[in-house]
User: What shape does this take?
Amino acid sequence: MSREREETLVRRLVELGRKLGADDVEVQLAVSTEFEVEVRQGEIEKLIQADSRGISLRVTKQHRVSLTSTNEFDPNTLERLVEKAVRRAELATEDPYSGPPEEFGSPVEPESLDLFDPSLAELMPEAKIKMARETERIGLALDSRISNSLGAWMSTVISSYWFANSRGVEHHFVSSLASLGLGLQAGDTDHRVEQYWWSTARHLEDLESPEVVARKAVQRTVRELNPRKLKTMRAAVIFEPRMTAQLLSFLASCVNGMLVYRGRSFLAGRLGDFVFGSNITVMDDGLLPRGLGSSPCDTEGVASRKMTVVESGVLRSYLLNAYSARRLGLKTTGHASGQGVAPHNFYLKPEEASPEEIVRSTEKGLLLTRTLGHGTNPVTGEISKGAYGLWIEKGEIAYPVSEITISGTLAEWLSRVDAIGNDLEFGSPIGGPTIRVQDVVIAGR
Amino acid sequence: MIGREDVFDPPSFFAQRYGLEISSMAKTLERALARGGDFAELFVEYSLHSAVTVEEGAVRDTEESVGLGAGVRVIRGERTGYAYTNDLRFPSLQDAARTASTIVAAGNHGTGLADLRLSAPRLRLYEPESSSVFAGLEEKVQLCLRAHDAAAGLDSRIRNVRVSFSEGLRVVLIANSEGRMVFDARPLVRLDVSAVAEKNGSRNAGYHGDGGRVGLEFFREAQRPEEIGRRAAEEALILLGAADPPAGEMPVVLAPGESGTMIHEAVGHLLEADANRKKQSIFWDKMGQVVASELVTIFDDPTLPRLRGSYQVDDEGTEPVKTLLIERGRLCGYLTDLLSARVLRMEANGHGRRQSYAHVPIPRMSNTYLAAGEHDPQEIIASVRKGLYAVSYQGGQVEDTGKFTFSLRLAYLIEDGKLTRPVRQATLIGSNMDILRNIEMVGNDLRFGRQTGTCGKEGQSVPVSDGTPTVKIRRMTVGGRV
Assistant: This one.
């Protein structure tokens, strides 16, 4: 589809909805080109390429809402769907909190976010295949303890996004995303360990090279060989950046306005309170140049911004869309994502210490490298997960551990952080530096 | 929109509606194999999905979505080329075929193609013509409101109740270079309730849900919506008074039904043939060996009527068969798709599934269960002096090495052979070979869990279900807090 046709389609749907009786119409259109190659043992395992597209539509009539999505673009089907959407809205209960936001803020120029890399759009399939091959080849050759490959992959997505509503708000931006990764196993079949590493970036030049991805994957895999089990105890736990990010991802769901207004988060009703230690500051930045979670607007057309979620331990803001904001008597923060809420670039503010210093200054503790399982509960803030890591004694890594769990609550853990690293990293839109949490329950033998 | 009569004849639906004639499907396959290759396939899909959400007694919103697309796959050796499009017109399908064919190096000769022979699915496991998508939304709104009121009215401590009714109809048409052409029309429906209970500032959420490849008649049965609502609220109330779980190693008894997720995670995933073809699974070199206690017999059966994981043909057009995976402790089968069956020289047993046309089929589970044993469930609980009784699950995860984790929403302590206090948010961890060997008792009370499960693998979600009788595991590591 050409840019003009995309624009015309979006505007036409807004007009059609109004004509058929909707008070408000919001339309999103995403058109993307996807590429993914997976290489295993030097051979291409899978090569996927596609052009895909989708429309989603929210119609409001007399404070009643209906939702529609389709990737069939036939004009008759679209007309029928819009017609049904307007009729379906009448099934909903009148809800004064529903409908689009009143204020949309002032958006930045999409170009200033630098989300699109033309060189990635132009990169030939052969070059991407070569990158995946190279990553796996280096990974398999670096260390004789590596016994199998779980595959290396390279994927790219180029997307064009449109938003338009019946209040005259329009947005359009183009973005690119690439990911290069490798999974490995080490050891013999009955004593195997496995680990992955991947790099994700908006621009090709920000993507870690095959060499770097392979080295990290190898190092992270072999260090887990011959694990021991720990006794049940309390000890310090050092979270690697991606483990901190996992914790932050749980925090993001606890400050999700949709859960907050329903009383389904332990942070409901806590704005302005000290909820964590005074060394904890959490930001959400929708405007980070080249950020994985950056965009000029959210899915309700509200301009993205940078804001403080937790300031020195005090809860300052939830992540809100128009609906949850009205329910809570607040204003939207521009975090609408579909019918829910999602962070942009959500991160724990880094400090000065290097990760090595944090390990060196730990008398006894666990360096957490990976977790398994889904054990988080936003209603109570409780966490309980299977854990893998490296046991630390006198500031040195002593041996790997597995088949243990760590448990506690988010509030406890983020009140007991006594070291924050300088190594903030984003493997996803949620990022964090290395942190050390004192006195965590570890269950084992 | 699709009509009720279309589910009996998807080829005509796609032909009349989108101009997709059998001749253009054949030409697409021909184009896909123009550079050579062992196999080519065209997968066409139309899906309709709708949902109603009720919260705090109000109908929050309704949702409708239409999915349309086609994927072309070319296989050469163990290499797969895949391309998909949302446009079913001939030139787009030709483009997709050309793109998928690039998996085969240039300079090869084209591969011949068998004539397409259409066949209807032989199995009859559900009634797509009775799918709830053909009924008006009003009745579904009523079902949600009934479930809501049952939950909200149970106890004054119940606060936020959220109910969702979600339904889908997925029509697939599959044609391949071996001449097979087959279709399936799969209905799927679920009603979910989540309720928050609050007392003295402390809160917890309980869940319940049910459904399957059924129509609205399922929910018209004796107070079904009310029962789902009530059980969600009951769980929330129990969790409100639940203690922190113990930590350490102890015997674990799995409650029947829901605990099937344990069989799914700890065993099922590692018996999917792709992980074994690639020698990644801990089971890849153990076919025919004893890997579990002799009390353990595990099946995966896509042919059980109306269950969530069932299908009449898989997403590669293969008729599925009930598959024995472990028989009295001995490993005897993998779940195969066409590619892994060919590479491993095994039968294709109809477990090639995909989330949609935008995904490559891979070996997946359907309805996985541990067969019933001989013990009385009461006797099993009575045999434990101090341990944990696992009741409801938040989810589980396994890696190819066999290490797994389960998050329990609700469990009970077993003390001196009796269930005593409820505990919340416990985690079970271990490695699958240990657990399989440590199964000490298997009950005679096989049940399937509630029909709401979805399994994720390599970024693809598919509906599944699982089941188990009461099972005693000699010891497991429980991750708790005290």
Summary: Chain B touches chain A through 81 residues (CB under 8 Å). Residues 248-479 of chain B form one domain.
